[in-house]
TrEMBL record:
The keyword DNA-binding applies. GO terms for molecular function: DNA binding. It comes from Lujinxingia vulgaris. The keyword Translocase does not apply. The lineage of its organism: Bacteria, Deltaproteobacteria, Bradymonadales, Lujinxingiaceae, Lujinxingia. It comes from the Bacteria. This is BlaI/MecI/CopY family transcriptional regulator. Belongs to the BlaI transcriptional regulatory family. Signal peptide: none annotated.
Amino acid sequence: MPHLALGDLEQAVLDVLWREGALNPGQMHQVLGEERGISVNTVSSAMKRLFDKGLLEREKVSHAYEYRAAVSRAELQRQLIASIAERFSGEERAGLLAAFVDIAQADGEETLRRLEALVNARLKGGE
């Protein structure tokens, strides 16, 4: 599994690619870099880091690479949570599960109900 620690810029790049689709560094800079006051090179470096982590795919188009997300938002979330969960075993995981319930509770009753529905579906053998 790739090293998944994401900086703020890397997360923003992924958010844009999930929303907009494939972009080259110049296009990404127009969407993201100008408002942040950062250079095209900084944006390009962030995209390259995400590629190296296995989170982006790229294709050479003319003189530049065009990047697209290699994973969905849901898959990245699953990978991030799995990388945290593998650090805990046995009874230690109970605290991790309690943290998920706390997060759901803080988000409101509707989120708790969605979590309950997900758990019930898994217990019944569904996805």
